[in-house]
Amino acid sequence: MMKLPYLASLAVLTLPLHIMAMEPGPSSPQQAVTESWLTLQSSGKLASSTPQKATAAERDQAAQRLLDSYKHPIPEFFEQKVGGQTGGNHQ
Predict the structure, then answer these.
(1) Residue 18: pLDDT above 60?
(2) CA atoms 81, 88, 38, 58: torsion sign
(3) C-alpha distance from residue 89 to each of 30, 72, 85 (Å)
(4) Residue % of the chain over a pLDDT of 70
(5) Using one digit for the tens of pLDDT, what is the confidence trace for 20-50?
(6) CB under 8 Å to 26, separation ≥6 — which residues?
(7) Which among 23, 52, 26 is positioned nearest to 37, based on CA atoms?
């Protein structure tokens, strides 16, 4: 009985790792651009030298907006025909 978990673990470890992993790099040009922007944002290389501070009133308003957002129920599903058009080229 003890051999079954051991053998199952051994079988999983023998699977090729490339099957379980994604290919490196972006899968589309849009993803490459997104990754570039996220890298710039997280690195702070192009950050402003002027500190941007929120006033106490601005922080209170932001907190209140967050709290007010919880008052709206989350629908069970979204209507597919409702809403605007996206700018994407989906076919």
Answers:
(1) no
(2) negative
(3) 12, 32, 11
(4) 70
(5) 566 667 778 888 899 999 999 899 888 888 8
(6) 32, 35
(7) 26
